[in-house]
Write a structure and sequence with these properties.
Elements (H helix, E strand, L loop, with lengths): L2 H25 L5 H4 L1 H21 L4 H19 L9 H13 L47 H13 L5 H27 L7 H4 L2 H9 L4 H15 L16 E2 L2 E2 L3 H12 L19 H23 L7 H7 L9 H4 L5 H21 L4 H16 L8 H10 L11 H9 L4 H25 L13
Antiparallel strand pairs: 1-2
Helix pairs in contact: 1-3, 1-4, 4-9, 5-6, 7-9, 7-10, 10-11, 10-17, 11-12, 15-16, 16-17, 18-19
Length: 468
C-alpha cells in the first residue's frame, strides 16, 4: 500500500467523519420528527452516506492510525448528537418515569403512568404544564398502559434515576447511553484483539448512524443488552481466532467449536433478554452444546425467575405489562407486519405460518451447524429482521455489534433498512412501500452474499474478518 494512497484515504476518512459529525449535530437541533419531517430524514440519510464513504476509506488507512482516528470520531460524533430533546423517539421519557416510580417505592408494573395513584410523582419535565388539558398531557408514550420493559431494564432505569439529576433531563439520559456505548466499543476492540482480527472493523459500529442516534441521542436501553451479549461472546470464547494466543481451554464441544464457560454465557444472554426480549433468541443457539443443555436451561430459567420474583410477589400476573398490547399494536398478531412475506400475497394467519416455518428451518440449520456463536447469531438475527421487518431502527444495534466480530460486512446494509419505514410510519407516509423497498434491497444484498459464498464453496462466517 503506497504512502500516497494511505494519506488520501486518511483525508477521505477525516472529511467523511467531519460531514457525519456536522449532520449528527444537525439532527440534534430543536424540533422533532413531526416538526422537521423530510429535513430530518435527509440529515439521517446523509449520515448513512458519509458513513459509507468513511468505511470505504478506512480500509486503506494504516491500522494504528485508523483505530485512533475512528475512536476519536466516534466520541465526537456521539457528543455532537446529544440533544436537548430526543428528536426520533420518546422512549427515554418512559425510562425516566419508570425510574421515578421505582424510587418512590412503587412497582413499575402496578399502575400506568396516568393512574391517579401516581399523580403526586409527576415531574414537570415529563408532565409539562403547557400540555395540561391537552389530549396528550405528558411526554411519555402510552401513558394509559403499564410498562413493557423486563426487570433488568427496570433496574437500569432505577439506577439512571439515581445517577442523572432531573435538571439534566434528556441530556443526562443520553450521556448515560453514551457511557454504555463507549463500553460496547471497548468490548468490541478487546474481542477483536483477542481473535487476532483487523481492529479497523470497529469502524462498522463506531461510525454507524444507528449507534450514534439510537444508543446515544435517543438513549435506547438496547445498548445495555448489546453489552451483555458481548459479555456472552467473551465468556464463550467464541471470538478467539487462529491468531489468538493462550492455552487451549477444555469445554463442551459443538461440532468442533469449544465453549469455555457455557453457564456464564447463558447467564449473560439471559440478562440481555431481561433487558429487551429479542436477544433471548440467541439462547436457542446454546442448545447445540449437548453437554451443557441442562445447565443452560436451568441458569436461564433461574435468572428469569429471580428477576421477576419480586414483581410477581408485588403485582402478580401484571408483570406481563403491555407486551401483548405492543405485539398487537405492531400488527404481529394480525400477520400484517411481515412486509416481505406480504409480497407473496399472504396476510394474517398464512403470513404468520410462513414466517414461523422459515424461522424453524433457519434455527434447525443453525443448531446443526458448527458456526461459532457470533456467526450463528448474525445469521439468526438477519433472518429475524428480514422476516419480521420491524419499524424500530434500534433493533439492529445488536446485529451491527456482532457483525464487527464476524466480518460479515454484507449484513451492514440491513442495519439501515428500518429508517425509511420508521419515518414513513411516524409521518403517515407510504409505510408498506417504504419498508418493502428498504428491507427488500437489504434482502438482495444478503442473498447475493449467500450466493457468492456458496459458489466459493465456503461459509463466509468461517473466514477471518477482512477490513482492508
Amino acid at each position: 500500500m503506497s504512502g500516497t494512497r494511505g494519506r488520501l484515504a486518511l483525508a477521505g476518512l477525516l472529511l467523511a467523519g467531519a460531514v457525519e459529525v456536522w449532520l449528527a449535530h444537525r439532527t440534534a437541533a430543536p424540533g422533532g420528527i413531526l416538526a422537521r419531517r423530510g429535513r430530518l430524514f435527509a440529515e439521517v440519510a446523509g449520515m448513512w452516506g458519509a458513513y459509507a464513504v468513511a468505511l470505504w476509506c478506512v480500509r486503506a488507512v494504516p491500522r494504528r492510525t485508523a483505530v485512533v482516528v475512528v475512536l476519536g470520531l466516534a466520541v465526537v460524533l456521539r457528543l455532537a448528537s446529544v440533544s436537548h430533546k430526543a428528536p426520533l423517539s420518546d422512549d427515554l421519557y418512559r425510562y425516566a418515569w419508570d425510574g421515578v416510580v421505582q424510587s418512590a417505592g412503587t412497582d413499575p408494573y402496578r399502575y400506568p403512568p396516568d393512574a391517579p395513584e401516581l399523580s403526586a410523582l409527576r415531574e414537570a419535565w415529563l408532565w409539562p404544564p403547557e400540555l395540561a388539558g391537552q389530549p396528550r398531557e405528558t411526554l411519555l408514550n402510552r401513558a394509559g398502559v403499564p410498562t413493557i420493559y423486563p426487570p433488568v431494564a427496570e433496574a437500569w432505569f432505577w439506577l439512571e434515576h439515581q445517577l442523572v439529576p432531573l435538571s439534566a433531563r434528556d441530556e443526562g439520559y443520553e450521556l448515560a447511553g453514551l457511557g454504555l456505548d463507549l463500553a460496547v466499543l471497548a468490548s468490541l476492540l478487546a474481542l477483536l484483539r483477542r481473535a487476532g482480527r483487523d481492529p479497523r472493523t470497529v469502524a462498522w459500529y463506531a461510525l454507524a448512524p444507528v449507534a450514534v442516534l439510537e444508543a446515544v441521542q435517543n438513549a435506547h436501553v438496547d445498548v445495555l443488552a448489546v453489552l451483555l451479549v458481548l459479555g456472552a461472546v467473551a465468556a464463550a470464547g467464541a471470538a478467539r481466532g487462529p491468531a489468538a494466543r493462550g492455552p487451549v481451554v477444555r469445554g463442551p464441544v459443538v461440532r468442533g467449536q469449544v465453549v469455555r464457560r457455557p453457564v456464564l454465557t447463558a447467564a449473560a444472554l439471559a440478562g440481555a433478554a431481561l433487558v429487551k426480549v429479542y436477544p433471548g433468541l440467541l439462547l436457542v443457539l446454546l442448545l447445540r452444546h449437548r453437554g451443557a443443555r441442562v445447565r443452560v436451561v436451568a441458569v436461564s430459567a433461574a435468572l428469569a425467575g429471580l428477576a421477576y420474583l419480586p414483581h410477581v410477589l408485588a403485582v402478580g400476573p401484571q408483570v406481563v405489562g403491555y407486551l401483548p398490547g405492543y405485539l398487537r399494536e405492531e400488527h404481529y398478531g394480525q400477520g400484517s407486519r411481515y412486509l416481505l412475506v406480504g409480497l407473496l400475497g399472504l396476510r394474517g394467519a398464512p403470513a404468520t405460518a410462513v414466517v414461523g416455518l422459515a424461522l424453524l428451518v433457519l434455527v434447525s440449520w443453525l443448531l446443526r451447524s458448527d458456526l461459532p456463536l457470533p456467526h450463528a447469531a448474525v445469521r439468526l438475527l438477519v433472518g429475524v429482521l428480514l422476516l419480521g421487518t420491524p419499524v424500530q431502527p434500534w433493533y439492529a444495534l445488536l446485529l451491527l455489534a456482532l457483525v464487527v466480530l464476524t466480518g460479515d460486512g454484507w449484513a451492514v446494509p440491513l442495519t439501515a433498512a428500518a429508517y425509511p419505514l420508521f419515518f414513513a410510519t411516524i409521518l403517515d407516509g407510504p409505510a408498506d412501500l417504504a419498508g418493502r423497498l428498504s428491507y427488500g434491497l437489504a434482502a438482495l444484498v444478503v442473498a447475493g452474499a449467500a450466493l457468492v459464498g456458496r459458489r466459493r464453496g465456503r461459509d463466509p462466517g468461517r473466514q477471518p474478518a477482512r477490513a482492508g
